[in-house]
Design a protein that fits this description.
212 residues, globular
């Protein structure tokens, strides 16, 4: 079932505080803290990266390089409360570089943000934090497939990654207004195609992304 907005915010506040402490300890050279960071973020980073490439070896190599670089250059990495967007942005850059190197794609804008297979729980299902039926999940995935790659990625980062619009702008290397536009257009299209979706996921969840 849906969590209340207040309860969810409290949970995320605690989690971010815990992540910030681990990040500080990792930068100080504590291997246990580094291993905890890897375990904490690996699954969601793997899921995000898997939307850019179906090459599991390429994805694993990029993730390994990401964490190896973190440990190698830990003394040069600044303390930050924005750990998740930092990791998302770093992984995205590594995957895009490898995809561009190994394919005929000529620019980052051409790299698709693919849908996952029907056997997997989708980021979008996880992000709305509710129990959708198999039919409802399939319907939502079909609607999402009609959005642009950038709209789907922005929605993924907003709800599954739980990033702010400013953080999404940093990951996507666009301005905050562009993020607001991507979310507004994508979510508007979902709402137009499936008005009752609001009653399933909670109006606050969608409305918070719309420009005032």
């Amino acid at each position: 079932m849906l969590k209340s907005d207040t309860g969810h915010q409290a949970e995320r506040s605690w989690e971010k505080t815990d992540e910030t402490l681990l990040w500080q300890q990792f930068r100080e050279g504590q291997q246990d803290a580094f291993q905890s960071l890897v375990q904490h973020f690996y699954r969601e980073l793997h899921f995000y990266g898997g939307r850019f490439t179906r090459d599991s070896d390429l994805l694993k190599d990029c993730l390994q390089d990401l964490f190896l670089d973190l440990w190698t250059y830990r003394h040069k990495i600044v303390q930050t409360a924005y750990i998740r967007p930092y990791l998302y942005k770093s992984l995205r850059r590594k995957i895009h570089r490898e995809v561009l190197r190994s394919t005929s794609i000529v620019g980052e804008e051409s790299i698709p943000f693919d849908d996952v297979s029907s056997e997997e729980i989708t980021a979008e299902q996880a992000l709305i934090r509710t129990e959708l039926s198999e039919y409802q999940t399939a319907r939502l995935n079909n609607l999402l497939a009609q959005l642009s790659d950038r709209q789907r990625e922005a929605i993924h980062l907003k709800f599954y990654g739980e990033l702010s619009n400013d953080e999404i702008a940093d990951v996507l290397a666009v301005n905050k207004q562009s993020v607001a536009n991507l979310l507004h257009r994508g979510l508007s299209r979902l709402r137009e195609s499936w008005p009752s979706l609001l009653s399933l996921v909670g109006s606050w969840l969608l409305n918070e992304s719309f420009p005032k």
